[in-house]
Amino acid sequence: MSCIAILSVNHQLAPVSVREKVAFAPNGLPAALTQLNKVKGIEACAILSTCNRSEIYAIIDSDNGKETLSNYLANVHNIDRVEINPYLVYFEEDDALQHICYVATGLDSLVLGEPQILGQLKDAYHAAKEVGTLNKLLEKLFQHAFSTAKKVRTDTEIGSSAVSVAYCAVKLSEKIFADLSEQTVMLIGAGEMIELCAQHLNQKSVKKMIVANRTVENAKKIANLYQAKSISLKQFSSVIHEADIIISSTAASVPIIGKGLIESALKLRKHKPIFMLDIAIPRDIEPEVAQLDDVFLYTIDDLQQVIDNNLNNRQKEKALAEEIVVIQNKKFKDWLKKLPNEQVIQTYRENAYKMKGVAVESALKQLKKGNDAATVIQQLADQLTNKLLHAPFNNIKQTDAQQLSQCQGCIPKNKKL
């Protein structure tokens, strides 16, 4: 029987060094989905990959769902299962239903209640829809998660305080530099996270920002909003020494900033400190950069302390949000119970239309032969009635027989009715 299954590698168990190994590049997602959908037992699937989690959502017809999905994850990333086994979390049915709703509402995020994850989940849904790897049940599951998240946003204040990853990145910068307005900031990438960082930095009166991206046009879109400079990634190595703060979040599959580059930059800066924050998965900055003096290198995992200091308001709303998830999930489970009946009705309807087509075609042939119209119509009506009633009558007879058998089994042999 088909069931809802989710395999997750997320920030709660897996460090960034593990998460980056199982991350899916956006341009490789269609192929990954197609490959997964061909795996035996997989009826439908979607993949979510962010800086904090890589998750597979599937409708699976298998008694060994965890093995099936875990083997796929290891194979598609060409890594040993043993390496990721300690960090795998598997959910089925009710647990899977709760998990996807917790993800959508931000209850499972590094930053409690952060809104970006809902948009990322919607992107995962649309990617699967475009490739054609959704079915009715998985489609309904995602729509349910979206509507639940919307209700949580509407009915609680869990998203009221500004504690996004981008906000925390800027707060962490303030721990190194008391006055951000006097610092030069280089933002590498042009995604939503970088745009939010630019917004928060602008609110801190940062006057000089440089936005670097592979596609300069995309960098310009952000730079123009905040009177910043835009450059290509080919240019950033020649100006990186100007930056007091570097925040990087690209989709590159390998690090774009190495130890040698930062060593050269430090010499030009006469060893004036650089604050570097890598919020990309896989990482944009080689970990060895942290070995350099005068460099303060942080990854997304290092934001936890900043986040914890800014969660008081959201924690109060957490219990209310969890209650909403429980209520909404009951509605989904009620729908799920009716699903087999809907499928029976759909099959019966399809068969009925096939019967009608055959009967009408036969009647038209008889009319063309010149047979009596009244007789043909009567035969058509009788034929359709008998065929349409055949299946229901058989089901009724089988049910009666089963009930009689059960009843007789309850009567002691030495007693008579």
Explained architecture:
It is a single chain. The chain is an alpha/beta fold. The protein contains 15 helices and 10 strands. It has a 6-stranded parallel β-sheet. Strands 2-3-1-4 form a 4-stranded antiparallel β-sheet, with helices on both faces. The longest helix is centred in the C-terminal third of the chain and has 57 residues, at 312-368.
Q: Calculate the terminal CA-CA distance, rounded to whole Å.
A: 40 Å
Rg from alpha-carbon coordinates: 30 Å
What is the string of helix and strand elements?
EHHEEHHEHHHHEHEHEHEHEEHHH
What number is the mean pLDDT?
A: 88
Number of strands: 10
Quickly give the structural class: alpha/beta
Which residues form runs of ≥5 with pLDDT under 50? 411-417
Helix count, per DSSP?
15
Q: How is the topology of this model organized?
A:
Blueprint: E1 3-10, H1 16-19, H2 29-37, E2 42-49, E3 53-60, H3 65-76, H4 81-84, E4 89-92, H5 93-105, H6 116-131, H7 136-155, H8 165-176, E5 184-188, H9 192-203, E6 208-213, H10 216-223, E7 229-232, H11 233-239, E8 245-248, H12 259-268, E9 274-278, E10 295-299, H13 304-308, H14 312-368, H15 373-409
Parallel strand pairs: 5-6, 5-8, 6-7, 8-9, 9-10
Antiparallel strand pairs: 1-3, 1-4, 2-3
Helix pairs in contact: 2-6, 5-7, 5-14, 6-7, 7-14, 8-9, 14-15
